[in-house]
Amino acid sequence: MASTLFRHIQTQPLLLYPSAFFRRKNFAFYCTVKNTTQSQTASRENQRSPQIKVSPQKQSKNLDKLTKDYEAIIGIETHVQLSTLTKAFCGCPYNYGAPPNSSICPICMGLPGALPVLNSKVIEFAVRLGLALNCKLSLNSKFDRKQYFYPDLPKGYQISQFDVPIATGGYIDLDLPVEFGGGHRKFGITRVHMEEDAGKLLHSGNGSYSQVDLNRAGVPLLEIVSEPDMRNGIEAAEYAAELQRVVRYLGVSNGNMQEGSLRCDVNVSIRPNGQPEFGTKVEIKNLNSFSSINRAIDFEISRQVHLHSQGQGDSIVQETRLWEEGSQKTVSMRKKEGLSDYRYFPEPDLPEVIITKDYVDSIQNSLPELPEMKRRRYESMGLSMQDVLFLANDISVADFFDATIAKGADVKLATNWIMGDIAAYMKNEKVSINEIKLTPQELAELIASIKGGTISGKIGKEILFELIAKGGTVKGLIKEKDLVQIVDPAEIEKLVDVVLSENPKQLEQYRAGKTKLQGYFAGQVMKVSKGKANPALLNKILVEKLNAKS
Amino acid sequence: MGSRALLLLKLPAPARPLSSFNNRKLSSASELLSRYNCYRTRRCFTKATYGSSLEPPNLPRLAETARISLTPDEVEEFAPKIRQVIDWFGQLQAVDLSSVDPAIRADTEGENLRDDIPQPYEKREAAVAAIPSYEEPYIKVPKVLNKE
Amino acid sequence: MLSTLQPPRSLSRFPFRLSSIKPRHITFAVSSSSSLPVATSAVTDQSLQSSQILTIRHSLLSRHLTATQLVESYLTRLRLTEPQLKCFLHISDNVLKQAQELDDKINKGEDVGPLAGVLVGVKDNICTSDMPSTGGSRILENYRAPYDATAVRRMKEKGAIVVGKTNLDEFGMGSTTEGSAFQVTSNPWDVSRVPGGSSGGSAAAVSARQCVVSLGSDTGGSVRQPASFCGVVGLKPTYGRVSRFGLMAYASSLDVIGCFGTSVADTGILLHAISGHDRYDATSSIREVPNFTPQFTSANLVESRPLKGLRVGIIRETLDDGVDNGVKSAISCAASHLEELGCTVTEVSLPSFSLGLPAYYILASSESSSNLSRYDGVRYGKQAVADELNMLYGDSRAQGFGPEVKMRILMGTYALSAGYYDAYYKRAQQVRTLIQKSFKAALDANDILISPAAPSAAYKIGEKKNDPLAMYAGDIMTVNVNLAGLPALVLPCGFVEEGPAGLPVGVQMIGAAFDEATLLKVGHIFEQTLQGFKFVPPMVADGAS
Question: Domain of life of the organism in this record (chain A) (predicted)?
């Protein structure tokens, strides 16, 4: 069933999709879900997702109204693949995209007699992330075996942490994007624990057999379980985006959803407003981008609301559904009777994970400034929320910005340059801020040069392009191209005189009343001065001369 | 000689009545589990049935869980033996263990961690040679009908 | 609550009858079945009398014997006895070549390792890259491990020659080797009887002098009980002393690799060669391993009471009604012998002792149900024909595993199931704590503890096959030691009057964690001063008909 979608793609790198407009069967509906999250800030009034005005015919006002009667409860389980050099329990290196089964050994293959030995970096990364998520760290945690049979799980069990995870009871702060109404949120983190990844299972074309690649088996993961605090797709998507920011800031993972180094499964349930009991929750998998998180949740909420409102609440069963990107809906994967029993028991091959308070403190002290802190700092510098979110979203951009203002550049100007021309260049050429040739030093220099009057704003823009593409120094370029602004009135006078004398007709016309020609003259002077004339001064002198009666 | 050995399998005298077993306080791990399990779809909540007799082993279901295709003869042969052993295991229920910590293993010393330094395995070919169904570069398995 | 020991009682008040033991005087001649030069006159040094390994070293280095001659004599005996005994699942075809290489080295005056020329049997659940490793199971028939177990590697680095892989109960589950998928090993003392298990092949091979020493594994007594049944020395080290990397896991928190030898000294020398921290085993201990060899060469045997001051506790719970009288007498004699050597022997009670057996079986079957999940026919081993994945798993495992293994997996799966974990597994872990504490208390008050290694001597093949509980009952003497992770040494101390030539009985000595040195010292002196017994099976002593 084709569904009609209207997407509003942001120019910002956040790439969030607002609630989509669906057509399904005989009705089209627009999803809004009442927001009842805790810690609402004053900007709450603007909560509602942007209205997408669409022409289509049937809009089910009934369903729209209905969703307002329900509260959605959303929780997210995120798996973060750590960027350690080696796997969790053996010395095999891990490289995304390596030839299948090229990085394996007896341990990660689950050969008879093989034993796991923990990579110390995994503990370090886990502590870092736990601290960044404001969790309480368990100084004494352990591993457990989670048992099930599947071809990508060589030992027939996964080494994970069950009842004593390394970190519990934290929270994450984030700011919703301005275009979605903005607002600060704080979502709880139930736990963070260490575990190993399974291999990859690929299904053959005709489905009669499958293929196993064990390169990924044994790669370390951190599983982050959120409290069920999110209330709609935007909040969930932003939570995931913030986790991505955090893991990138910390350097524990590249947090790439397409590569699979950041994976999210969401749990969605609804309950009528005011009902204390939770409804049946449904798990959704196969979410490969933040936008699919957003859309899948909103879809699922509508699905459940619709069923519930028709009195078919019972047909909402606890199950796992897959998000289908093509058809933009969740489909039942498989209805299961009962739940899986993983027969957890403590891993006898691994000693307890014991960390000292000193160790934790030393990691705490070495944490970089996290996104939340950065946002608050930028806010306090007087930047608008939109600017704050843009700058703080990518740690490289933030670092560039910080370096630029550290050289004394004006905050607002630096922001404008970065968000404007520089961002545009990056987008067009598809490069990151680390790849452009412009350095923060030079950006600061540029800003200072313009501010100090050495060059005009227009000239500034021109050399910016060259600086970005080819590098070089501001001072160098100014000198090389002779770009210094002309601010000497006498010199400008001379130029104006030249232009006026070369354009007697226009002068006559001007003096006869065509005052619009001032622009023409100004342009000519600019041309003659190769753009270096200071515009303000130029116009002042020009006007004087034009209006002089001689 | 065999029968004499069986004399060694005596049950200890029950230290306390079963009521103390029932009133055992939930450990904090169990509490954490119960809160955590509220919101987990994949894991069955461990609701231990204290005191009352646990359900006897359901052999066909256990065999399915353990991925062993038992023949009906085997089921018939194993069931009483397994039942007998499980009943014998049950003698631990009668012991008062309320103040005893579980021991995962004997004390070992040191953390025994690895550094994050790559060590590619040199004998990959030998390991791959042992794979029964290998279609370069993948391990081949038949299709899956049910995922656990 | 755990340290209420009974007041000391002297042995004369033990309430069991002493049956009359007739010491057998059997002289042991080296290589009686072939006329080889025997270095008899030079072997007067005490160390050489007590250690075959040291004797071999001396003979080779002094050129009294070549490695080739030595190895040939063992291989001859092996070939003669193997059809009856069936100790080996695989025999190396590379042995003579290694012996010749060793001779070359010696002739060139090059250094050779401490185990040079020593033929070793390796239990088939320990991985070797140049020979199959089956674990005694069809599911690994013809499996070639791509790597050597750490213990094997270390042994080979010191010059040992692996003569072959020995028979065992499948994956270590059993006490007789009747659980092997391939063959049943016979006891060299009476081929109608079991050698014990699960390391029955390793024990019998050493007993029959098919090899000098051998490696086994001990999860619940699988080195100690066969040592007792076969009349050889079996050493179970402390958990974590020897790396488990390469040992096919049965119960990870209980498994250890152990040593068999014809003397305490040999097991100690072998243990030293394979012990020590291994970066591939996170449960291996970083503790230094003392060199045991000096104490075998310098033990004071002349002094009248060389073990004066040593406190020995005899475990009361191991001398109850379920134990054969013959065994009780042998232990009693052992206790007397220790007293003669100067020890103080008192009775010790270990509370919770009898809980150890069900706790052990819960833990072992639970852990093994998990450890054996990897045997699914996908990455190695026997693969059944199936066009659906779960059928592949189910059939490969059904066809590959024997009945005992299947039952243990099913029991373990049950014990770990949701709702049952607290009732079984967790309780068993708690019992383990109790047992650890009770041993610790007893070993604070005593230097070593002693008990039988098994309630009886070797029983007939087929006798216990169908009654699991009867089979499990035989482990009562040994499992608690595994639960506590302690070291234990079993050495022959007497006979019972059964079988054509009597059946040997071993005494188990248990030490404090990582205190193998004390065990070896006591065991060595005990062995060297024990009069009137020669623990060589008739088929070997009589030249193997």
Answer: Eukaryota
Q: How far is CA A451 from CA A441, A446, A448, A536, C131, in A?
A: 15, 8, 5, 14, 80
Strand partners, C524: none
User: pTM surpassing 0.95?
Assistant: no
- Whether C483 is in a domain gets the answer yes
Is-contact B41 C510, C-beta < 8 A?
Answer: no
pLDDT of residue A207: 79
CA A202/CA B143 separation, integer angstroms:
10
Which member of C222, C228, C329, C352 is catalytic? Answer: C222
Q: How many CB pairs under 8 A join B and C?
A: 261
Burial label, C496 (beta-carbon count in 10 A; 0-12, 13-18, 19+)? buried
Looking at A317-331, C284-298, C339-353, C371-385, which range is the least confident one?
Answer: C284-298
β-bridge mates for residue C254, sequence order: none
Catalytic residue flag (residue C521): no
Q: Answer whether residue B20 is part of any domain.
A: no
- Distance in Å, alpha carbon of B138 to nearest chain A alpha carbon: 6
Contact B33 A163 (CB under 8 A): yes
Number of structural domains in chain B: 1
Residue A30 has pLDDT above 50, yes or no: no
Q: Measured between CB atoms, which of B7, B89, B104 is closest to C424? A: B89
Q: What 8-state DSSP symbol labels residue C187?
A: B
Token code pair at residue C420: 């049952």
| Number of other CB atoms surrounding residue A236 within 10 Å | 28
Tens digits of residue pLDDT in A317-368: 888 999 999 999 999 886 655 568 999 999 999 999 999 999 999 999 999 9
Q: Which domain covers residue B58, as residue numbers?
A: 54-92
- The one-letter code for the residue type at A398 is A
CA distance C428 to C254: 13
Gap between the Cα atoms of A418 and A400, Å rounded: 9
Best residue in C142, C350, C365, C413 to probe B by mutation, most B CBs within 10 Å?
C413
Average pLDDT, chain B: 72
Residue C178 domain-assigned (yes or no): yes
When divided into structural domains, chain C yields a total of: 1
A36, pLDDT greater than 50: no
Determine the structural domain holding residue C217 and report its residue range.
49-309+455-542
Q: At what angle do helices A517-528 and A535-547 cross, to 10 degrees?
A: 120
Task: Give the C-alpha separation, C11 to B140, whole Å.
Answer: 66
Cis peptide before C358 (omega within 30 of 0): no
Facing residues of A136 across strands? A168
- Are A110 and A149 contacting, i.e. CB atoms less than 8 angstroms apart? no
Portion 483-542 of C in contact with B at CB < 8 A:
483-486, 513
β-strands C233-236, C488-496 pairing: antiparallel
State the pLDDT confidence band at C44, using cuts at 50, 70 and 90. Answer: very low
CATH of the domain at C463: 3.90.1300.10
H or E stretch at C488? strand C488-496
The CA-CA-CA angle for residues A455, A459, A465, to 5°, reads 125
Q: Is the ipTM of this complex over 0.95?
A: no
Strand C256-261 to C213-218 pairing: antiparallel
> CA-to-CA distance for C464 and A83, rounded, in angstroms?
55
Interface of C to A at Cβ within 8 Å reads 126-127, 133, 135, 140, 143, 145-147, 149, 244-249, 251-253, 279-283, 366-367, 370, 373-376, 378-380, 387, 389-390, 393, 413, 416-418, 421, 425
One-letter amino acid identity for C47? S
Question: pLDDT, tens digit, for every residue of C510-534?
Answer: 999 999 999 999 999 999 999 888 8
Active-site residue C336, yes or no?
A: no
B91-100 mean pLDDT: 92
Under 8 Å between Cβ of C251 and C367:
yes
Distances (CA, A) of A318 to A245, A268, A273, B40, B147: 31, 10, 21, 10, 16
